Amino acid sequence: MTEAPKPVAASAARPDQWPLWEVFVRSRQGLEHKHCGSVHATDAAMALRMARDVYTRRQEGVSLWVVPSTAITASVDEDADPFFDPAADKIYRHPTFYVLPDDVGHM
Amino acid sequence: MSVHLECLLRLADSALVHSQRLSEWCGHGPILEEDIALSNIALDTLGQARLLYQHAAQLEGAGRDEDALAYFRDEREFRNFTLLELPNGAGPRDDYAVTIARLFLQSALMLHAWDALRASSDAQLAAIAAKSLKETRYHVDHAGQWLVRLGDGTDESHARAQAALDRLWPYTHEAFEDDEIDREAARIGLAPLWSTLRPAWLATIDAVLSEATLRRPVDTPFRSGGKSGAHSEYLGYLLAEMQVIARAYPGARW
């Protein structure tokens, strides 16, 4: 039995660079925060300000999150087949086989 | 020149010259993110200068527009504080500590100046002040954060931040030294008396310096005279670079 590949942090820390932070922007009140890119910064306070300057200077957002990139565990390429292929032939998981009553209107 | 126009040009020229110095970092910032941040601040400041020049040009009513005021006036006609025309470094090399220290000192000043100018008898100036105050709050925050990092950082960064403050401090007095124009502007409700802003300014400075483990430099009798048109040797070079294209191709559009 082969050893399962270990989950890897999205970005391993590099000693010659400031840590990387993932940036999430909420474009309008009521919408969710969406990932939009990353910045280098020495700490969270700086990351938030860098994110403000790099990603919201054209009025893209009303709220920002920054998360250390190392906090993200990403799936690895070798896992792609077992992770994602099994979903390919299960179209019944899409809610397209139900008839919506007219009264529901737009959904 | 009327007191009103003189008052607007002091604000406008200070914003333009500071913006020009800040934008010298564009493409040369210490890291990409900070390069963009500083360029944003330069653009904020340029935007403030434009609004003030447009207002001044309209008030003057002599057929000059914002470009004429920015590009076709000579050194002696500029009314910016001398502090803002000093180079970005103390020697031949640009020094980020000097840039950040100046940005902090000036933004902290404008934080209180814009706040007071919101009550100006000139409604247009009051509106510009209200808009600029929001931008300036961020500039103070950004520069203050950096000053703390530099001051409370390594021995090298601390020494350079302190040297930057020591170098710039004598030039900060000019703003608070009321002259005839300042007094008349205050009398007609156009602007606050600048000397009255100093206690609040010092409080803003001291709070950050203490966190940054930096020392507030000692006050000295030296007074620069940029706001009356008596500038340092540096403004001529700055204007030459800033104005050369507009003067070589007058009326050019791009």
- How would the global form of chain B be characterised? globular
The rounded distance between the terminal residues' Cα atoms of chain B is: 32 Å
Which H/E pattern describes the elements of chain A?
Answer: EEEHEEH
Question: How many β strands of chain A by DSSP?
Answer: 5
Low-confidence stretches of chain A: 7-11
Helix content of chain A: 10-25%
* Beta-strand residue percentage of chain B: under 5%
Radius of gyration of chain B: 18 Å
The radius of gyration computed from the alpha-carbon positions of chain A, rounded to a whole number of angstroms, is 20 Å
Please, how many helices of chain B?
A: 10
What is the average of the pLDDT values of chain B?
Answer: 96
Q: Give the quaternary arrangement of the chains.
A: heterodimer
Helix/strand/pairing category of chain A = alpha+beta
State the separation between the terminal residues of chain A, measured CA to CA.
47 Å
Question: Which strand-content bin applies to the residues of chain A?
Answer: 15-25%
Largest sheet composition of chain B: none
Mean pLDDT of chain A: 84
